[in-house]
Amino acid sequence: MSAAFTLSLDAMGGDFAPEIVLKGAALARERYPSAHFLLFGDEAKLKPLLAQYVALAACSTIRHTDQVITGDTKPSQAIRQGRQSSMWKAIEAVKLGEAAGVVSAGNTGALMAMAKIIMRPLPGIDRPAICGLFPTRMGETTMLDLGANAQCDARNLVEFAVMGECFARAILGLERPSVGLLNIGSEDVKGTDALREASQVLRSSHLDMEFKGFIEGDDIAAGTVDVVVTDGFTGNVALKTAEGTAKLFASFLKAAIHSSWLAKFGMLFAKPVISQVMARTDARRYNGALFVGLNGVVVKSHGGTDGVGFANAIGVAVDMIARDLNTKIGEELARIAADRLEEALPVEAIGAVPQ
Amino acid sequence: MSAAFTLSLDAMGGDFAPEIVLKGAALARERYPSAHFLLFGDEAKLKPLLAQYVALAACSTIRHTDQVITGDTKPSQAIRQGRQSSMWKAIEAVKLGEAAGVVSAGNTGALMAMAKIIMRPLPGIDRPAICGLFPTRMGETTMLDLGANAQCDARNLVEFAVMGECFARAILGLERPSVGLLNIGSEDVKGTDALREASQVLRSSHLDMEFKGFIEGDDIAAGTVDVVVTDGFTGNVALKTAEGTAKLFASFLKAAIHSSWLAKFGMLFAKPVISQVMARTDARRYNGALFVGLNGVVVKSHGGTDGVGFANAIGVAVDMIARDLNTKIGEELARIAADRLEEALPVEAIGAVPQ
Question: Which CATH number fits domain B1-119: 3.40.50.10730, 2.60.40.1180, 3.40.718.10, 3.30.70.100?
Answer without folding.
Answer: 3.40.718.10
